[in-house]
Amino acid sequence: MNMTHPFRDADGDKLREECGVFGVIGSKDAANIAAAGLHSLQHRGQEAVGITSFSGEEFHSHRGLGHVAQVFSQRELDTLPGTMASGHVRYATTGGSGLRNVQPLFADLAAGGFSIAHNGNISNAMTLKRDLVSKGSIFQSTSDTEVIIHLVATSRYPTLLDRFVDALRMVEGAYSLICMTAEGMIACRDPLGIRPLVMGRIGDATVFASETVAFDVIGAEFIRSIEPGELVQVDHKGTISSHRPFGNPAPRPCIFEHVYFSRPDSVMDGRSVYGVRKQIGMELAKEAPAPADVVIPVPDSGVPAAIGYAQQSGIPFELGIIRSHYVGRTFIQPGDAARHADVKRKHNANRAIVEGKRIILIDDSIVRGTTSLKIVEMMRDAGAAEVHMRIASPPTEHSCFYGVDTPERSKLLAANMDIQAMADFIKADSLAFVSIDGLYRAVGEDKRNKKRPQFCDACFSGEYPTKLTDFAERFSGERNAA
Amino acid sequence: MNMTHPFRDADGDKLREECGVFGVIGSKDAANIAAAGLHSLQHRGQEAVGITSFSGEEFHSHRGLGHVAQVFSQRELDTLPGTMASGHVRYATTGGSGLRNVQPLFADLAAGGFSIAHNGNISNAMTLKRDLVSKGSIFQSTSDTEVIIHLVATSRYPTLLDRFVDALRMVEGAYSLICMTAEGMIACRDPLGIRPLVMGRIGDATVFASETVAFDVIGAEFIRSIEPGELVQVDHKGTISSHRPFGNPAPRPCIFEHVYFSRPDSVMDGRSVYGVRKQIGMELAKEAPAPADVVIPVPDSGVPAAIGYAQQSGIPFELGIIRSHYVGRTFIQPGDAARHADVKRKHNANRAIVEGKRIILIDDSIVRGTTSLKIVEMMRDAGAAEVHMRIASPPTEHSCFYGVDTPERSKLLAANMDIQAMADFIKADSLAFVSIDGLYRAVGEDKRNKKRPQFCDACFSGEYPTKLTDFAERFSGERNAA
Amino acid sequence: MNMTHPFRDADGDKLREECGVFGVIGSKDAANIAAAGLHSLQHRGQEAVGITSFSGEEFHSHRGLGHVAQVFSQRELDTLPGTMASGHVRYATTGGSGLRNVQPLFADLAAGGFSIAHNGNISNAMTLKRDLVSKGSIFQSTSDTEVIIHLVATSRYPTLLDRFVDALRMVEGAYSLICMTAEGMIACRDPLGIRPLVMGRIGDATVFASETVAFDVIGAEFIRSIEPGELVQVDHKGTISSHRPFGNPAPRPCIFEHVYFSRPDSVMDGRSVYGVRKQIGMELAKEAPAPADVVIPVPDSGVPAAIGYAQQSGIPFELGIIRSHYVGRTFIQPGDAARHADVKRKHNANRAIVEGKRIILIDDSIVRGTTSLKIVEMMRDAGAAEVHMRIASPPTEHSCFYGVDTPERSKLLAANMDIQAMADFIKADSLAFVSIDGLYRAVGEDKRNKKRPQFCDACFSGEYPTKLTDFAERFSGERNAA
Amino acid sequence: MNMTHPFRDADGDKLREECGVFGVIGSKDAANIAAAGLHSLQHRGQEAVGITSFSGEEFHSHRGLGHVAQVFSQRELDTLPGTMASGHVRYATTGGSGLRNVQPLFADLAAGGFSIAHNGNISNAMTLKRDLVSKGSIFQSTSDTEVIIHLVATSRYPTLLDRFVDALRMVEGAYSLICMTAEGMIACRDPLGIRPLVMGRIGDATVFASETVAFDVIGAEFIRSIEPGELVQVDHKGTISSHRPFGNPAPRPCIFEHVYFSRPDSVMDGRSVYGVRKQIGMELAKEAPAPADVVIPVPDSGVPAAIGYAQQSGIPFELGIIRSHYVGRTFIQPGDAARHADVKRKHNANRAIVEGKRIILIDDSIVRGTTSLKIVEMMRDAGAAEVHMRIASPPTEHSCFYGVDTPERSKLLAANMDIQAMADFIKADSLAFVSIDGLYRAVGEDKRNKKRPQFCDACFSGEYPTKLTDFAERFSGERNAA
After folding, report:
1. What is the predicted pLDDT for the residue at A340?
2. Are B7 and D60 a contacting pair at CB < 8 A?
3. Measured between CA atoms, how close is C340 to chain D, in angstroms?
4. CA separation for the pair A177, A22 (Å, rounded)
5. Are the C-beta atoms of B463 and B479 separated by less than 8 Å?
6. Residue in B25, B215, B216 to test binding to A, most A beta-carbons within 10 Å
């Protein structure tokens, strides 16, 4: 059993990506540390990876499509000398020209080399790009991140740091960034801190990562989270300085990192991700009990909540679905005879546990609903007497524009149906979601008390905490902060 | 078959492999069904895969190093036409010339084309090969399986079936075979039935596989196990005939299939593998209780026994170790600072669960002991107060010569130490193994009552059920049936 | 265009390349015609090739390292739809990031897509680039050609054609360009016409190429040369318009195209290249006779001049050196015993012709002298009684800054030695070069009569016909037009 | 100009191959020397190459599809240690399983490792194979060479040398072989010496090769030809012994090696190949003069005969056809508009020489006639006034069964038409072939005086010097020695 691999379908029209970023400055093993750190962040993006290093005189880069362990062997890492390196894992890059979009991006500016790795999404990138191109900027990628580079290149401020802050003041949306210049490393988080970013230490070196698990794996010590709106600079002597160019807006970190996106062994803003998920399962058991014989997780992402549900309800936890490790991307149907062969390649019913039983199925979320339907049917084919689906998040009714890859709203099941209709669609005997209040309880906060820390929960509530300039027409009907 | 490259493999002494076999006859989707079936058997061998098909006139073959999904896309499968196909997944093939050993093996005999896929190991292969070579046979692989082909080729019997039986009478050891000739498919299992083999049906087609999970995945119906010593022939009209060329010796199926090797969602000789493993955990809880706060499995193979242990003992089951899916084969150390980085790439402590707790760790077996040591140390680094290791099999004191890849005896921790010394070696506060009697109880049998069904448990007991001609000197001190 | 990898090439100071360009507009087979045309121009650049097509809505591109036939099969060509295509072959691109420099370059400008393929070299590229970068332009390649794109992007003129002319007015040096916009194709040649460019017709389509041989191979009709300083536009209806934005300076086409660079079956500005080379050999026979038994060409480039020398002198032409076609780039020495094995892999003495003979060796030029030395030694090892080297061009004393790849001046043998010293260096019994007057006679012109057409002969004379802004310090001692 | 690349069309149904073999024993650089030697024999086979070495204990092998320089870099050569190595270049290997047929072939026999590289063709291979398979031998390739290995493996003689001679006594046809055993190297030539084989020395090492050019390139000294029917053994101490197991039949070496197949800088049985070809051109000028302005070779193979023809006739030799070096295998038609684009990719008319002229075209042979037709049409398209084709060999009326790749008889133009009909087919104004007597005169022998040395000239005369067991039915109408 195995929890780190997000449950993703193969689909094409991804515009927004989940990503992971990592940086290290001050170690002779910089590129190797970056590769190991990115490897532990692989669940945040499996399609492409890149590392850029700085050897004191020159920047070096290697990028490729695939997993960290496919793109990087010691041979490639040996082409990345120096004591500073940063890297990026990325979800979706399709097409022959995809390599152009693989980060870190790099440019030789008049002020020197500038490298950038970005987790998040800039919600006015298209608008900014149109303006830049009209003045002569030439874009090479289709990535929103590239606008930051051109804003830096064309800024009138004298120093590279000033130009960078000048550029950030023009962008809106979510960004956790790790940048490199000849002088050192800059890590910063958008004013609301939508995407995570943490700082640690290994020996004399400073490290930054999207999640704490990266520090565990490389043997680094966790120091603290980068604050929302904070910009941290580290030079080659190890001097660290903190800046707050955006004042002190109230933070709104992404709650979906707790529900699904982060690794369960990470600690996010002081909370154990595994612990939160188990607690969500407990809240769910209280809010939505069901008479059943066994609690069965949809592996792997449903497992912690299922353990919590089982402990709270007293119903035994059992592996009623077995997941295969060996799922290839371009696999083939065995022919007409096999029903739901694609889902069976990944998940197979453990008939000995399922047959004749009333089961509670626990999953993290429902997006389009097609996978849930297949899983429920697989349970029935294996002889389940009743199937009660329980979901460890509120209904996903809204798209994310801050870097979590969700389909457009019209394809979200919860945007189109009420809960009973959803239950019918997935053919479950009953269906329930944890409430948004229950979710806040599980993380130890209170959605209704705005004096307490709040999250970005736009995917559940539609309350977007920033302007969405590029999407203004499409989403004029939705509530947002503008 | 290929005679031009019989140079020794880099790892020439790796003669024993774990493998999976699959066959289908009577379907227009034969190659696709074989690929899907092999995909579900991937856990039995991840290093190489091959499929051979028969299109009515010719045999076609594609083999490669890697996973099923890496070696086969629809493009390769389209080169394998016909209504009959068989395939093989294999554990270890290293070196540039490794492809020679990838099965199915094939030869053009005077009686026509002959293809063979083999799970198991022939324990007099070297002896037979010496004799064949002295008479002019030219071997192309270093696989033990190739002796069967040469025995068939040089047999004096008239029909291909008679030649095949003549060949099998000369070999000793473990073999589940799926062969193809122009006339149809032959599936057979050695006289003791050491390795598994099952038969099913999908539409009008007959299928054979190492495990029932392959039938689930392709949507086939399980019919029955092939009996130990049984040879089943299926022709292109679908006529099935059963032969018993070896009489009716008492079966001795491998008990390690239940402990570790098979998928938990398979049913092996009528027993749910998941159910047996959970029961082993329950026996272990009775035999070797420990005062603790949590039961933590070493994922993934320790999970079912841990669930059983937790249910029996009442101690909560928790995911104290998180496993990454993204472990590449040639990965790199992040540098000197990181302790046990290699094991951390695969397993990471979930500190929130472990810290300050007395934990019971459940794993399936201990081979060399080095991994157990690293896991225990990882638990202590994460703050575990006490670590009690519990193993869901008896001590592995003896090598397997029947197709499970185990190191030579001198490298087996249990062959060299008593249990207290082992506990000290892995730095656990306590260590216990399930007893062999407890293991038999978990599968519902009785080791001491020889009238009841017995297993091959040589890896635990040293009681080898066949001659070991090739290994006679090395193992003269061990008990075997000869 | 690609901004993310502008790290320096391993051979960053290789700024000058020989290249070939080709364009076609108005044919449904545009990409295939481009590939065939580039194939015939392969001698102008063997290291990299690219083709860009326009399908009415989008630009498509495929570029790679290697020969045309290695980079393009029908599969790649099928990804390049449309009735307009242009391509480029290029001499030297080394290192992993080399692909960035492979042309055609492309950018999405505010005014639309813009593609450019360039033969020649811009001698103020570095100076222009510094200025552009200071204003915020981000370069992705190390190619001089990219400055043209940025000049177009940042020009204040309204139309793309005006912007393009505006850009060209800022550049100095040699350029034959084939550009594409959504409106059609633009072919133009620098004011002095240093590099060649010809126009032809195949069916209803218009074609452009560096040499006429490309028209022979695709079955096109030669129309005329593009004039020095002329800019020809062709739209999708086939309308052709000619512009002269630079006035009418006196042309100075490169004479080295006749000596070495063009294919012998091309016709360059009305002169057969083969005929000119044969005539150079005749002039050489008159200027530098030698008492000898045979005339032997250094294959392949010395053959036409050797035929001319033999016909003029009456001494028999014989193949005393045999050239192998199969020279790989990374080949291996057979060991210490073999002398000059590298040159022998390419050239081998035909001992039966050489032994005991007084030979006249004809080669096209001497650059560093090391190859000439090896060839002479090879002749002596094969038993030559006397070796008289005759060179079908004047001594190469100066570097080219206009797109022919020559080493820096300090490595040119003729820049460092007089002719007798050169003869001693290459161990020839005698050495002679054709005079620059003889060379002009061979092409039918007169170097001393400036009213007659003149050439760029800077590599022989040091008389550079343009400013050399980027190289001003290095070459302040040399004569140039500035 | 460039003579070593045979003029070959791309066609599929090749059953017989031209090949080159090379061996070296006694040098620490054995594999490197073999690679360099094979590189110089590349014209004898361009599709596949292999090298096997012996390191004192083990045989090592690397084989691949492609040219020597594509298959072998220093990295591959470093995997081939030892002081003895042999290799093979091969013409045609098609299909995915082609690698099986790439030589040297190797087998582990009871008497030890045995490697074989073969130039020629065994004309009773099919018959022998049927018998071997019926007794249990398993073939892995479709190569005729493999029968020799099985004959050695199943021979009843005690020593490996005796078994080898026993095997050779059973085979008929043409073979020059280089074999390796743990004891040393064996080189031998069939009783009639149909294919060439020469011996040389480099330092203390002994070398064998198909042609002397291989010795030039590696810096070795030519010692002598292996005699027809001779078997030479060299052990690791350098001791050389010669055996004549077949008595002393009258030799019949292949005359086509002189006409076309060998490199012009090789010396074959004491005769300069270039000199013979030039002499054939002179004989042709005497036998078949034509009133013309220029003599034009079809490059490269027609060049020496064209030089001879020009010198004898006094008509000027000119390069009226230019050949491209860059012909790829899978190239693409530029579209319907281009006539004969495939031949133009390789050969292009030099219009300046051809236009308005009466030309004599010299080629080495006519096989199917389709290429000759295209060349003649290309000359006419370029404005030739008259085209007189002269061929430097007699009409090719019969297939070769001894290792030269010729199509079956029905596809040979000369087997189906008289000379006037052939001239009409290729659209030449006149056509003439050198007579077989003229050909013998050119090599200094006399076809009509059987006391003088004779050649295998079966492709011209139909007089096959051996039995053709496998082809008995097909060729019962042709004269042969049986």
Report:
1. 55
2. yes
3. 9
4. 9
5. yes
6. B216
Verify whether the Cβ–Cβ distance C138 to A138 is below 8 Å: yes
**pLDDT reading at B95 higher than 50:** no
Q: Find out whether C202 and D337 touch, Cβ atoms under 8 Å.
A: yes
Active-site residues of D: which are they? 19
Q: Distance between CA A71 and CA C274 in Å, rounded?
A: 50
Q: How far apart are alpha carbons B158 and A5 in whole angstroms?
A: 56
Is the sign of the CA dihedral A345, A347, A351, A356 positive or negative? negative
Q: Give the nearest partner residue to A322 out of B72, B203, B265, using CB atoms.
A: B265
Q: How many CB atoms lie within 10 A of CB C482?
A: 10
CA distances from B263 to A264, B178, C114, C134 (A): 25, 20, 57, 63
What is the pLDDT at residue D17?
A: 47
Cβ–Cβ pairs < 8 A, chains A and B:
249
Q: Which residue has the tokens 């109408």?
A: D477
Active site residue A19: yes
Q: Domains along chain D?
A: 19-251 (3.60.20.10), 273-324+339-471 (3.40.50.2020)
**pLDDT tens digits, D91-119:** 764 433 478 889 999 999 998 999 999 99
- Chosen for mutation from B332, B357, B364 (greatest number of chain A CBs closer than 10 Å) is B332
Model pTM score: 0.87
Helix (H, G, I), strand (E, B) or coil at D436: helix
Classify B105 in phi/psi space as left (phi over 0), alpha (psi -120 to 50) or beta. beta
Between chain A and chain D, are at least 3 CB pairs below 8 A?
A: no
The answer to whether the Cβ–Cβ distance between C153 and A138 falls below 8 Å is yes
pLDDT-derived band at B4, boundaries 50, 70, 90: very low
Q: C181 vs chain A: nearest CA distance in angstroms? A: 15
Torsion angle of the four alpha carbons D55, D60, D66, D69, in this order, in degrees rounded to the nearest 10: -30
CA distance B295 to B272: 23
Work out the mean pLDDT of chain D and round it to a whole number. Answer: 89
Q: Do chains D and B touch (3 or more CB pairs under 8 A)?
A: yes
> Which residues of A fall within a CB distance of 8 Å from B272?
350-353
From first CA to last CA, the distance across chain C in angstroms is 33
Q: Enter the DSSP assignment of D97.
A: G
Looking at the predicted structure, is the pLDDT value of residue D335 above 90? Answer: no
| Mean pLDDT of the A61-75 span | 91
User: Do B151 and D135 touch, CB atoms closer than 8 A?
Assistant: no
Say whether pLDDT at D363 is over 50.
yes
Let me know how long chain D is. 482
- The 3-state DSSP class for residue C364 equals coil
Strands (E), B316-439: 321-323, 347-349, 358-363, 386-391, 430-433
| C216 in a known ligand binding site | no
- Nearest-angstrom CA–CA distance, A321 and B216: 12
Nearest partner of A140 among A170, A111, A108, judged by Cα: A108
DSSP A27-83: -TTHHHHHHHHHHHTGGG--SEEEEEEE-SS-EEEEEEES-HHHH--HHHHTT--SS
User: What would the two tokens of residue B301 be?
Assistant: 């193979």
Distance CA B350, CA B318 (A): 10
Query: What are the pLDDT digits (tens) for B111-161?
Result: 899 999 999 999 999 999 999 999 999 998 888 999 999 999 999 999 999
* Distance separating alpha carbons of residues A471 and B12, to the nearest angstrom: 62
Is B459 annotated in some ligand binding site?
A: yes
Is the CB of C332 less than 8 angstroms away from the CB of D307?
A: no
Give the pairing of strands B358-363 and C173-181.
Answer: unpaired
Instruction: Name every residue whose Cβ is closer than 8 Å to that of residue A237 and which is 6 or more positions away in sequence.
Output: none
